[in-house]
Write a structure and sequence with these properties.
The complex is a heterodimer of chains A (about 180) and B (about 450).
Chain A (H helix, E strand, L loop, with lengths): L5 H9 L17 E4 L4 E4 L3 E5 L3 E5 L8 E6 L4 E4 L4 E4 L3 E3 L6 E3 L25 E7 L3 E7 L14 E4 L4 E4 L4
Antiparallel strand pairs in A: 1-2, 3-5, 6-7, 8-9, 10-11, 12-13
Chain B lengths: L4 H13 L21 H13 L10 E16 L3 H4 L10 E16 L2 E9 L23 E4 L5 E4 L3 E13 L2 E9 L21 H4 L6 E13 L2 E10 L16 E10 L4 E20 L1 H4 L6 E22 L2 E14 L6 E2 L2 E2 L3 E12 L6 E16 L3 E16 L2 E13 L5 H4 L2 E11 L1
Antiparallel strand pairs in B: 1-2, 1-20, 2-3, 3-6, 4-5, 6-7, 7-8, 8-9, 9-10, 10-11, 11-12, 12-13, 13-16, 14-15, 16-17, 17-18, 18-19, 19-20
Helix pairs in contact in B: 1-2
Classes of the chains: A mainly beta (about 180), B mainly beta (about 450).
């Protein structure tokens, strides 16, 4: 249990009638622990920070690193980077630009459909076949191997793909 | 010569504006005070009256312009690279820098109303350090150079201006005054009365400069002073947008901050003042982002969220005792910050924990009976309560120096300072003690 320095205890004691916001035993968010060497909150062992991946338009503090929102288990195709306390894409993966998900990269980047014809999912029950280009207007775009779909059942759930009806294509989903 | 309305107003303002109010930076005014006019000023104003349109003389707001400035020479000696990267002093012991150039605009609007504005002219961004960055690198100093197109495109450095305060005050009586606008937070000794000729060392203690209570706020303040014999009791109560990068104009989370101060002042034993202050509010930083899912629909939508939000509670206690040439001054400040769980400020490889920072300083000075020499000693300690300033957890500073008031409005200062840094990681590159020497000339005008 972290020890609260004497002066803080005294100050809080004196101010008890008014209230003391600070609790030395509860300094971090759920899934985080207090690192009393570096004096910061880090994710519990085995978890990585959930870094917000949204596309920032306006930011009051633009130089700051991206905000965190708690900690989570690293998803499929992610590994834990303990130095930075975050889940990062596995070296064999690439970042999907819209959601920040890690896209399995077994030959996934492509320029036309023929490059995806021979690509199958790890369990062998799914065949890719479509080179899908995802454009995020002027911000960024990428092409990767996918497949046409109507429902999630048409996609390889074992690698976290789901069906996006607007695209009629399988893409890495939130659940990973 | 027949003067036009505009030229008369200009002459009147210039003439009256020359009245100097040195050190009267935040003076208490009796609402019944009349503005004393010289015979020349009165003649100009009578002329204005004859021209018509202005009514009585006292209906014309009169403006005082005054201010203070200082120049600092000095720096740190033998500073290591890590600490040097945290500030823009480095090892350059012969730095010469303009510290403050502050101008006050003080207008008695009559009938109990008064306007006070204070503007600081900065040389910044020139020479401010952009680093260290989160990846550990530090960029070079910022240059703010432009070219004067009407003078052969000669280069010049431009600087920022800062509104230190700007408010309208209504004085009903000494026991009830109301201010609205940008206000210096009433706490401690050297926050409202912050002119460099008043500060005994070359700078305010870090405890004060680090804003454990916000230096200024935008809002409404009620204050007053009650007297009984040698005893005076003063109070301040305020509400504001609180703290935050845009708090001069916005209260992002619609949660007004509140605070106050109570102090007792007596002349029974020298001059003794004891005070206590508090501040409670929220801080929020907002980001606006594109909703990712909306990109796939072809009509992007925007949403916003708080990237940082916390609640804080801060307290301060202060004491000033002047007796028989001695000046004893001390402050204790404490700040508790508790973050919303989904909006903690990110740090390198983690996020900022809830923290309880505190700091205190004590100053002892003695004015010798000749030449207005005032040797002083100041010791302060700061506990940041979390990793701050590149991994530091605390800092202790000792100042020893000499303050010489060569004129009522001109003060020379020289001081040696020893800085002890602390870090929980125990890295000596971070915590090597630092020594510095500074001289300052400050003056009021």
């Amino acid at each position: 249990m972290p020890k609260q320095p004497t002066v803080q205890v005294l100050i809080c004691g004196l101010l008890a009638p008014i209230g003391c916001l600070f609790d030395a035993n509860d300094r971090c968010s759920a899934g985080e622990i207090f690192d009393d060497v570096d004096l910061k909150c880090v994710c519990e062992e085995g978890l990585g920070a959930n870094i917000r991946t949204d596309i920032i338009v306006l930011d009051g503090v633009p130089d700051n690193p991206r905000p965190r929102d708690g900690c989570r288990i690293c998803r499929f195709n992610e590994t834990l980077d303990e130095t930075n306390d975050t889940c990062v894409c596995h070296p064999d993966s690439v970042v999907y630009p819209v959601t920040g998900q890690c896209l399995p990269s077994y030959g996934t980047q492509c320029s036309d459909d023929t490059q995806c014809d021979q690509l199958i999912s790890p369990t062998g029950n799914f065949v890719f076949g479509r080179c899908l280009t995802v454009s995020t207007s002027s911000i960024t775009s990428m092409s990767f191997c996918s497949s046409n779909c109507q429902t999630n059942a048409d996609c390889p759930a074992e690698i976290g793909f789901m069906c996006v009806s607007e695209l009629e294509a399988c893409v890495p989903g939130d659940e990973g | 010569m027949r003067l036009t309305h505009h030229s008369l107003i200009f002459v009147a303002l210039l003439t009256v504006g020359i009245q100097q109010s040195v050190f009267a930076f935040d003076h208490d005014e009796d609402p019944s005070n009349e503005i004393e006019l010289s015979s020349e000023e009165a003649a100009i104003l009578r002329e204005l009256e004859r021209e018509g349109g202005f009514g009585k003389v006292r209906d014309i707001p009169l403006l005082d312009i005054y201010g203070f400035a200082d120049v600092l020479v000095g720096g740190f000696i033998g500073m290591n690279d890590h600490v040097a990267s945290q500030n823009n002093f480095g090892e350059r012991i012969t730095n010469v820098m303009l510290g403050n150039l502050n101008m006050y605009l003080d207008a008695n609007l009559t009938h109990g109303f008064r306007f006070l504005g204070e503007i600081r002219f900065h040389t910044a961004p020139t020479a401010t350090s952009e680093g260290p960055n989160f990846d550990g690198t530090a960029d070079h100093f910022v240059h703010s150079t432009s070219w004067d197109a009407v003078d052969g495109n000669t280069p010049f450095s431009f600087g920022y201006i800062e509104i230190e305060r700007a408010y309208l005050e209504y004085v009903y009586a000494n026991w009830l005054k109301v201010k609205i606008g940008i206000l210096l937070t009433p706490y401690g000794v050297w926050n409202v009365d912050h002119g460099s000729p008043v500060i005994i060392p070359t700078r305010r203690p870090f405890v004060v400069a680090s804003e454990l209570i916000p230096e200024r706020q935008t809002g409404l303040e009620v204050s007053g002073l009650l007297s009984a014999g040698t005893l005076r009791i003063g109070y301040h109560a305020y509400t504001s947008n609180g703290r935050g990068s845009v708090s001069t104009a916005l209260d992002l989370d619609d949660n007004l901050a509140v605070g106050g101060r109570l102090y007792i002042d007596t002349t029974a034993l020298g001059r003794l003042r004891v005070g206590g202050s508090f501040y409670s509010g929220t801080t929020a930083e907002e980001r606006v982002n594109v909703v990712p899912e909306s990109l796939q629909t072809g009509s992007p939508e925007l949403s916003s969220y708080f990237s940082i939000r916390n609640h804080e509670l801060a307290f301060g206690a202060d004491l000033v005792w002047k007796i028989a040439g001695f000046h004893l001054q001390a402050e204790l400040l404490s700040r508790q910050v508790v973050y919303d769980n989904d909006a903690r400020a990110p740090t390198l490889g983690g996020s900022t924990p809830d923290y309880h920072a505190w700091g205190a300083y004590g100053l002892l000075a003695y004015e010798l009976p000749f030449w207005h020499l005032r040797p002083f000693f100041l010791a302060e300690h700061n506990d940041f309560g979390r990793a701050d300033f590149g991994g530091l957890s605390g800092m202790t500073i000792f100042f020893i120096g000499l303050n010489i008031r060569v004129l009522p409005v001109v003060v020379f200062k020289a001081q040696y300072l020893h800085v002890k840094l602390s870090s929980n990681t125990g890295s000596s590159s971070v915590t090597d003690p630092q020594n510095g020497f500074e001289m300052q000339c400050s003056w009021a005008f």
